[in-house]
Amino acid sequence: MFYDLSNSRRFEIAIFVLIFLNMLSMGIEHYGQPHAIFFMLEVSNAFFTTVFGLEAIVKIIGLRYHYFTVPWNVFDFLLVVASILGIFLEDIMIDFPISPTLLRVVRVFRIGRILRLIKAAKGIRKLLFALIVSLPALFNIGALLALITFIYAIIGMFLFGHVRQQGALDDMVNFETFGRSMHLLFRLITSAGWNDVLESLMIEYPDCDPHYRNQSNGDCGYPLLAIIYFTSFIIINYMIVINMYIAIILENFNQAHQEEEIGIVEDDLEMFYIRWSKYDPHATQFIQFSQLSDFIASLDPPLGISKPNTVALVSFNLPIAKGDKIHCLDILHALVKHVLGHVEETENFRQVT
Questions:
Q1: Which of 37, 141, 156, 157 could join 161 via S-S bond, C-beta 3.0 to 4.6 A?
Q2: Is 353 exposed, middle or buried (0-12, 13-18, 19+ CB in 10 A)?
Q3: pLDDT tens per residue across span 235-293
Q4: Domain 2-120 belongs to what architecture?
Protein backbone atom coordinates (compact mmCIF):
# COMPACT_ATOMS: atom_id res chain seq x y z
CA MET A 1 0.00 0.00 0.00
CA PHE A 2 2.75 2.45 0.93
CA TYR A 3 4.63 1.61 -2.27
CA ASP A 4 1.57 2.27 -4.44
CA LEU A 5 0.85 5.49 -2.56
CA SER A 6 4.43 6.76 -2.91
CA ASN A 7 4.28 6.21 -6.70
CA SER A 8 0.76 7.55 -7.08
CA ARG A 9 0.36 10.50 -9.41
CA ARG A 10 -2.57 11.81 -7.37
CA PHE A 11 -0.43 11.70 -4.24
CA GLU A 12 2.27 13.77 -5.94
CA ILE A 13 -0.28 16.30 -7.20
CA ALA A 14 -1.75 16.65 -3.69
CA ILE A 15 1.71 17.28 -2.25
CA PHE A 16 2.47 19.96 -4.84
CA VAL A 17 -0.86 21.67 -4.12
CA LEU A 18 0.13 21.76 -0.44
CA ILE A 19 3.53 23.19 -1.37
CA PHE A 20 1.79 25.94 -3.35
CA LEU A 21 -0.55 26.69 -0.42
CA ASN A 22 2.48 26.77 1.87
CA MET A 23 4.07 29.31 -0.46
CA LEU A 24 0.95 31.50 -0.26
CA SER A 25 0.95 31.35 3.54
CA MET A 26 4.60 32.50 3.56
CA GLY A 27 3.61 35.51 1.46
CA ILE A 28 1.06 36.60 4.07
CA GLU A 29 3.73 37.19 6.72
CA HIS A 30 4.74 40.85 7.05
CA TYR A 31 6.35 43.28 9.44
CA GLY A 32 4.13 44.51 12.29
CA GLN A 33 1.49 41.84 11.66
CA PRO A 34 -1.30 41.31 14.24
CA HIS A 35 -0.93 38.52 16.77
CA ALA A 36 -3.86 36.64 15.21
CA ILE A 37 -2.07 36.39 11.85
CA PHE A 38 1.17 35.40 13.60
CA PHE A 39 -0.65 32.58 15.43
CA MET A 40 -2.36 31.43 12.22
CA LEU A 41 0.98 31.31 10.38
CA GLU A 42 2.61 29.34 13.20
CA VAL A 43 -0.22 26.79 13.10
CA SER A 44 -0.01 26.53 9.31
CA ASN A 45 3.77 26.07 9.51
CA ALA A 46 3.36 23.21 11.99
CA PHE A 47 0.64 21.68 9.78
CA PHE A 48 2.70 21.79 6.58
CA THR A 49 5.80 20.48 8.36
CA THR A 50 3.77 17.57 9.72
CA VAL A 51 2.27 16.76 6.32
CA PHE A 52 5.64 16.84 4.56
CA GLY A 53 7.14 14.75 7.35
CA LEU A 54 4.40 12.14 6.92
CA GLU A 55 5.02 12.17 3.17
CA ALA A 56 8.69 11.36 3.76
CA ILE A 57 7.74 8.55 6.17
CA VAL A 58 5.28 7.04 3.66
CA LYS A 59 7.90 7.05 0.91
CA ILE A 60 10.61 5.62 3.19
CA ILE A 61 8.31 2.77 4.25
CA GLY A 62 7.18 2.13 0.67
CA LEU A 63 10.53 2.44 -1.08
CA ARG A 64 12.79 1.46 1.86
CA TYR A 65 16.46 2.15 1.16
CA HIS A 66 15.68 2.90 -2.50
CA TYR A 67 14.17 6.17 -1.26
CA PHE A 68 17.66 7.58 -0.65
CA THR A 69 18.93 6.55 -4.09
CA VAL A 70 16.85 9.28 -5.75
CA PRO A 71 18.43 12.76 -5.42
CA TRP A 72 15.05 14.52 -5.28
CA ASN A 73 13.98 12.33 -2.36
CA VAL A 74 17.19 13.16 -0.49
CA PHE A 75 16.54 16.83 -1.20
CA ASP A 76 12.96 16.53 0.15
CA PHE A 77 14.19 14.67 3.24
CA LEU A 78 16.78 17.35 4.04
CA LEU A 79 14.12 20.07 3.70
CA VAL A 80 11.82 18.22 6.09
CA VAL A 81 14.64 17.82 8.62
CA ALA A 82 15.51 21.52 8.24
CA SER A 83 11.86 22.53 8.76
CA ILE A 84 11.55 20.42 11.92
CA LEU A 85 14.87 21.78 13.16
CA GLY A 86 13.62 25.32 12.46
CA ILE A 87 10.50 24.77 14.60
CA PHE A 88 12.53 23.44 17.55
CA LEU A 89 15.11 26.22 17.32
CA GLU A 90 12.35 28.81 17.09
CA ASP A 91 10.78 27.49 20.30
CA ILE A 92 14.16 27.51 22.03
CA MET A 93 14.80 31.09 20.95
CA ILE A 94 11.41 32.20 22.25
CA ASP A 95 12.06 30.61 25.68
CA PHE A 96 15.56 32.07 25.96
CA PRO A 97 16.73 35.67 25.40
CA ILE A 98 18.28 35.23 21.93
CA SER A 99 18.58 37.89 19.24
CA PRO A 100 15.46 38.16 16.99
CA THR A 101 17.81 38.25 13.99
CA LEU A 102 18.75 34.61 14.60
CA LEU A 103 15.04 33.79 14.80
CA ARG A 104 14.49 35.26 11.34
CA VAL A 105 17.42 33.23 10.00
CA VAL A 106 15.89 30.02 11.34
CA ARG A 107 12.58 30.83 9.63
CA VAL A 108 14.42 30.90 6.30
CA PHE A 109 14.37 27.08 6.48
CA ARG A 110 10.68 27.24 5.52
CA ILE A 111 11.45 28.85 2.17
CA GLY A 112 13.30 25.74 1.07
CA ARG A 113 9.99 23.90 0.67
CA ILE A 114 9.10 26.10 -2.28
CA LEU A 115 12.12 24.73 -4.14
CA ARG A 116 10.33 21.39 -4.33
CA LEU A 117 8.15 22.92 -7.05
CA ILE A 118 11.21 22.58 -9.32
CA LYS A 119 10.65 18.83 -9.31
CA ALA A 120 7.15 19.31 -10.75
CA ALA A 121 8.01 22.08 -13.21
CA LYS A 122 9.60 20.37 -16.20
CA GLY A 123 10.59 23.67 -17.83
CA ILE A 124 12.35 24.91 -14.69
CA ARG A 125 14.24 21.62 -14.41
CA LYS A 126 15.33 21.92 -18.02
CA LEU A 127 16.56 25.46 -17.42
CA LEU A 128 18.35 24.38 -14.25
CA PHE A 129 20.00 21.54 -16.16
CA ALA A 130 21.15 23.99 -18.86
CA LEU A 131 22.60 26.24 -16.16
CA ILE A 132 24.53 23.36 -14.55
CA VAL A 133 25.90 22.22 -17.92
CA SER A 134 26.97 25.80 -18.62
CA LEU A 135 28.96 26.19 -15.39
CA PRO A 136 32.40 25.29 -16.84
CA ALA A 137 32.02 27.79 -19.68
CA LEU A 138 30.58 30.39 -17.31
CA PHE A 139 33.61 29.96 -15.05
CA ASN A 140 35.93 30.67 -18.00
CA ILE A 141 33.96 33.77 -18.93
CA GLY A 142 34.04 34.88 -15.29
CA ALA A 143 37.83 34.51 -15.26
CA LEU A 144 38.04 36.62 -18.43
CA LEU A 145 35.74 39.21 -16.89
CA ALA A 146 37.86 39.35 -13.73
CA LEU A 147 41.05 39.74 -15.78
CA ILE A 148 39.63 42.62 -17.83
CA THR A 149 38.28 44.30 -14.69
CA PHE A 150 41.68 43.87 -12.98
CA ILE A 151 43.46 45.59 -15.89
CA TYR A 152 40.97 48.45 -15.96
CA ALA A 153 41.23 48.85 -12.18
CA ILE A 154 45.01 49.33 -12.42
CA ILE A 155 44.59 51.80 -15.30
CA GLY A 156 41.88 53.66 -13.37
CA MET A 157 44.14 54.04 -10.33
CA PHE A 158 46.90 55.66 -12.45
CA LEU A 159 44.55 57.93 -14.40
CA PHE A 160 41.89 58.92 -11.87
CA GLY A 161 43.27 58.09 -8.43
CA HIS A 162 43.98 61.77 -7.76
CA VAL A 163 40.64 63.25 -8.94
CA ARG A 164 38.82 65.42 -6.38
CA GLN A 165 35.90 63.76 -4.63
CA GLN A 166 32.72 65.47 -5.79
CA GLY A 167 29.49 64.52 -7.51
CA ALA A 168 29.30 60.72 -7.70
CA LEU A 169 32.80 60.35 -6.17
CA ASP A 170 33.04 60.00 -2.40
CA ASP A 171 35.03 58.11 0.24
CA MET A 172 33.90 54.72 -1.12
CA VAL A 173 33.32 55.45 -4.81
CA ASN A 174 36.70 56.42 -6.26
CA PHE A 175 39.86 55.07 -7.88
CA GLU A 176 42.25 55.90 -5.03
CA THR A 177 42.97 52.27 -4.08
CA PHE A 178 42.88 48.97 -5.94
CA GLY A 179 40.06 47.61 -3.78
CA ARG A 180 37.85 50.64 -4.36
CA SER A 181 38.63 50.58 -8.07
CA MET A 182 37.53 46.93 -8.32
CA HIS A 183 34.42 47.66 -6.27
CA LEU A 184 33.49 50.61 -8.50
CA LEU A 185 34.14 48.72 -11.73
CA PHE A 186 32.12 45.74 -10.49
CA ARG A 187 29.21 48.13 -10.06
CA LEU A 188 29.82 49.64 -13.49
CA ILE A 189 29.70 46.16 -15.09
CA THR A 190 25.93 46.37 -14.59
CA SER A 191 26.02 49.86 -16.20
CA ALA A 192 24.57 51.30 -12.98
CA GLY A 193 25.30 55.04 -12.76
CA TRP A 194 28.34 54.96 -15.03
CA ASN A 195 27.40 58.32 -16.59
CA ASP A 196 27.42 60.03 -13.16
CA VAL A 197 30.89 58.67 -12.40
CA LEU A 198 32.09 59.70 -15.85
CA GLU A 199 30.82 63.25 -15.31
CA SER A 200 32.67 63.47 -11.98
CA LEU A 201 35.92 62.31 -13.60
CA MET A 202 35.66 65.01 -16.29
CA ILE A 203 36.13 67.84 -13.78
CA GLU A 204 38.29 70.70 -15.05
CA TYR A 205 39.59 74.07 -13.90
CA PRO A 206 38.19 76.23 -12.22
CA ASP A 207 36.25 73.46 -10.38
CA CYS A 208 39.53 71.81 -9.40
CA ASP A 209 43.12 72.77 -8.53
CA PRO A 210 45.58 71.96 -11.38
CA HIS A 211 48.52 72.42 -8.95
CA TYR A 212 47.17 70.31 -6.08
CA ARG A 213 50.12 68.66 -4.24
CA ASN A 214 52.36 69.63 -7.19
CA GLN A 215 50.91 66.79 -9.28
CA SER A 216 50.98 67.00 -13.08
CA ASN A 217 47.24 67.58 -13.31
CA GLY A 218 46.49 68.36 -9.66
CA ASP A 219 43.11 66.95 -8.62
CA CYS A 220 41.54 67.56 -12.04
CA GLY A 221 40.39 64.83 -14.40
CA TYR A 222 41.15 63.91 -18.00
CA PRO A 223 37.88 64.35 -19.95
CA LEU A 224 39.01 62.68 -23.17
CA LEU A 225 40.70 59.75 -21.41
CA ALA A 226 37.69 59.33 -19.12
CA ILE A 227 35.36 59.05 -22.13
CA ILE A 228 37.61 56.50 -23.86
CA TYR A 229 38.11 54.58 -20.59
CA PHE A 230 34.42 54.25 -19.73
CA THR A 231 33.19 53.72 -23.28
CA SER A 232 35.63 50.88 -23.91
CA PHE A 233 34.93 49.31 -20.49
CA ILE A 234 31.15 49.35 -20.98
CA ILE A 235 31.40 47.95 -24.53
CA ILE A 236 33.82 45.15 -23.62
CA ASN A 237 32.46 44.06 -20.25
CA TYR A 238 28.77 44.95 -20.30
CA MET A 239 27.82 44.59 -23.96
CA ILE A 240 30.11 41.70 -24.94
CA VAL A 241 31.33 39.62 -22.00
CA ILE A 242 28.18 39.80 -19.88
CA ASN A 243 26.00 38.93 -22.88
CA MET A 244 28.22 35.89 -23.48
CA TYR A 245 26.79 34.48 -20.24
CA ILE A 246 23.28 34.72 -21.66
CA ALA A 247 24.36 33.32 -25.03
CA ILE A 248 25.96 30.21 -23.49
CA ILE A 249 23.00 29.47 -21.22
CA LEU A 250 20.53 29.90 -24.10
CA GLU A 251 22.67 27.66 -26.32
CA ASN A 252 22.72 24.86 -23.75
CA PHE A 253 19.01 25.32 -23.06
CA ASN A 254 18.26 25.04 -26.77
CA GLN A 255 20.48 21.96 -27.02
CA ALA A 256 18.70 20.33 -24.07
CA HIS A 257 15.36 21.11 -25.69
CA GLN A 258 16.43 19.58 -29.02
CA GLU A 259 17.71 16.43 -27.32
CA GLU A 260 14.41 16.11 -25.51
CA GLU A 261 12.45 16.51 -28.73
CA ILE A 262 14.30 13.80 -30.63
CA GLY A 263 15.39 11.41 -27.88
CA ILE A 264 14.69 9.62 -24.63
CA VAL A 265 15.20 11.57 -21.41
CA GLU A 266 15.39 10.50 -17.77
CA ASP A 267 11.72 11.33 -17.19
CA ASP A 268 10.72 8.81 -19.87
CA LEU A 269 12.70 6.05 -18.17
CA GLU A 270 11.24 6.97 -14.79
CA MET A 271 7.74 6.88 -16.28
CA PHE A 272 8.47 3.44 -17.78
CA TYR A 273 9.45 1.93 -14.43
CA ILE A 274 6.55 3.55 -12.59
CA ARG A 275 4.06 2.03 -15.06
CA TRP A 276 5.96 -1.26 -14.92
CA SER A 277 5.52 -1.44 -11.15
CA LYS A 278 1.74 -1.59 -11.61
CA TYR A 279 2.03 -4.69 -13.82
CA ASP A 280 4.87 -6.22 -11.78
CA PRO A 281 4.06 -5.31 -8.14
CA HIS A 282 6.43 -7.95 -6.73
CA ALA A 283 9.42 -6.64 -8.75
CA THR A 284 10.11 -9.93 -10.55
CA GLN A 285 11.24 -7.98 -13.66
CA PHE A 286 8.84 -10.08 -15.77
CA ILE A 287 5.27 -9.64 -16.96
CA GLN A 288 2.95 -11.99 -18.82
CA PHE A 289 2.89 -11.74 -22.61
CA SER A 290 -0.87 -11.18 -22.40
CA GLN A 291 -0.21 -7.98 -20.41
CA LEU A 292 2.25 -6.56 -22.94
CA SER A 293 -0.28 -4.78 -25.17
CA ASP A 294 -1.97 -3.03 -22.24
CA PHE A 295 1.39 -2.08 -20.72
CA ILE A 296 2.74 -0.54 -23.95
CA ALA A 297 -0.52 1.36 -24.46
CA SER A 298 -0.34 2.79 -20.92
CA LEU A 299 3.04 4.42 -21.52
CA ASP A 300 3.28 8.11 -22.32
CA PRO A 301 4.92 9.34 -25.56
CA PRO A 302 7.46 8.78 -26.97
CA LEU A 303 7.68 5.22 -25.59
CA GLY A 304 3.95 4.47 -25.64
CA ILE A 305 2.15 2.88 -28.59
CA SER A 306 -1.60 3.19 -28.50
CA LYS A 307 -3.88 0.29 -29.41
CA PRO A 308 -4.10 -1.48 -31.79
CA ASN A 309 -0.39 -2.18 -31.33
CA THR A 310 -0.21 -5.90 -32.13
CA VAL A 311 1.74 -5.39 -35.36
CA ALA A 312 4.33 -3.20 -33.62
CA LEU A 313 4.75 -5.73 -30.81
CA VAL A 314 5.32 -8.56 -33.28
CA SER A 315 7.98 -6.48 -35.05
CA PHE A 316 9.84 -6.09 -31.74
CA ASN A 317 10.74 -9.82 -31.87
CA LEU A 318 10.93 -10.01 -28.08
CA PRO A 319 12.44 -13.09 -26.42
CA ILE A 320 9.85 -14.98 -24.36
CA ALA A 321 10.96 -16.68 -21.15
CA LYS A 322 9.47 -19.72 -19.49
CA GLY A 323 5.82 -19.28 -18.62
CA ASP A 324 5.15 -16.79 -21.49
CA LYS A 325 6.91 -14.02 -19.60
CA ILE A 326 8.91 -11.06 -20.96
CA HIS A 327 11.76 -9.24 -19.23
CA CYS A 328 11.49 -5.49 -18.62
CA LEU A 329 14.88 -4.62 -20.18
CA ASP A 330 13.99 -6.48 -23.37
CA ILE A 331 10.83 -4.39 -23.66
CA LEU A 332 12.65 -1.15 -22.87
CA HIS A 333 15.41 -1.93 -25.36
CA ALA A 334 12.82 -2.64 -28.07
CA LEU A 335 10.91 0.57 -27.33
CA VAL A 336 14.08 2.68 -27.43
CA LYS A 337 15.03 1.15 -30.78
CA HIS A 338 11.50 1.85 -32.00
CA VAL A 339 11.84 5.53 -31.06
CA LEU A 340 15.48 6.19 -31.99
CA GLY A 341 16.19 3.50 -34.55
CA HIS A 342 18.88 0.84 -34.08
CA VAL A 343 20.68 1.15 -30.76
CA GLU A 344 23.90 -0.71 -30.07
CA GLU A 345 23.85 -2.44 -26.70
CA THR A 346 26.89 -0.65 -25.31
CA GLU A 347 27.97 -0.41 -21.68
CA ASN A 348 26.50 3.11 -21.46
CA PHE A 349 23.12 1.82 -22.67
CA ARG A 350 23.16 -0.94 -20.05
CA GLN A 351 23.90 1.65 -17.34
CA VAL A 352 20.99 3.83 -18.48
CA THR A 353 18.54 0.97 -18.64
A1: 157
A2: middle
A3: 999 889 888 988 998 888 888 777 666 667 777 888 888 888 888 878 888 999 899 99
A4: Up-down Bundle (1.20)
